[in-house]
Amino acid sequence: xxxxxxxxxxxxxxxxxxxxxxxxxxxxxxxxxxxxxxxxxxxxxxxxxxxxxxxxxxxxxxxxxxxxxxxxxxxxxxxxxxxxxxxxxxxxxxxxxxxxxxxxxxxxxxxxxxxxxxxxxxxxxxxxxxxxxxxxxxxxxxxxxxxxxxxxxxxxxxxxxxxxxxxxxxxxxxxxxxxxxxxxxxxxxxxxxxxxxxxxxxxxxxxxxxxxxxxx
Length: 216
Prior knowledge:
By secondary structure, the chain is an alpha+beta fold. It is built from three helices and five strands. Strands 3-2-1-4-5 form a five-stranded antiparallel beta sheet. β2 (112-118) and β3 (124-130) form a beta hairpin. The longest helix is centred in the C-terminal third of the chain and has 55 residues, at 158-212. It is rod-shaped, with a radius of gyration of 34 Å.
């Protein structure tokens, strides 16, 4: 069983190295963003860090709240649209009468057919539909119609509601996070300019001190 124990130790060591590397990268990113404390930091660095933490807390609080609110609104609106469309659309069966119904010069004539179906009031309707797979004269296919008996598109599927909800939540979250990130980058740029000015002043003072202390 020694080979099993040695393999387990190697796997544990590899997992530890991976976690350590991930932690190192996270610390490096936080340090570059100015969020980690340091004894060498100046007051301007502390101001930038304080603003960074404030904006981070704001984003962590506002982004989920905005995403949840927009997702709830989008889902509720989508479900209402589903019920509304299903209440005025009906499923019936169309019977093909002629394949390729249309003018001779129609480019898409092979994609249509003339079919007959029953309206909600029981009357017969004839119209041109998009040809379904393996359509031929006499074949039957389910279609959707409106209250007047005209062929229409299927009602809104629930999957579209779920997709719109995800898009709404993602968009709301980004709408909060991106401006906050832009504000922090602007603050960091301003702080960088101030730090550059401090460095220039320090170098100028060192050059002046070196000139005064130079032996004659």
